[in-house]
Amino acid sequence: xxxxxxxxxxxxxxxxxxxxxxxxxxxxxxxxxxxxxxxxxxxxxxxxxxxxxxxxxxxxxxxxxxxxxxxxxxxxxxxxxxxxxxxxxxxxxxxxxxxxxxx
Length: 103
Known about the structure:
Pfam families: SoxZ
InterPro entries: SoxZ (IPR030995), SoxZ_dom (IPR014880)
Protein name: Thiosulfate oxidation carrier complex protein SoxZ
Oligomer: single chain
Domain Sulphur oxidation protein SoxZ: 6-100
């Protein structure tokens, strides 16, 4: 199964820029389907980005984040060829993780 996370990370001048797209329904629990039934809440609660075993970005999300969230961040201390790991866990206990190489 393909990862739900697409990521691109580029180092330039000592700063690494990371862009990630996470495929997830991010249902708030306040929306009804076409039959009028409430769609249960299903959203990412924790997203982390690690570099060399250290967290460089941690986000505690809730139901207000939109479907298929896009994330962009920058940090110092990485170099080209280093690996990043991005992972998430949602309110139903599901999770995903992927590793990217900094270009």
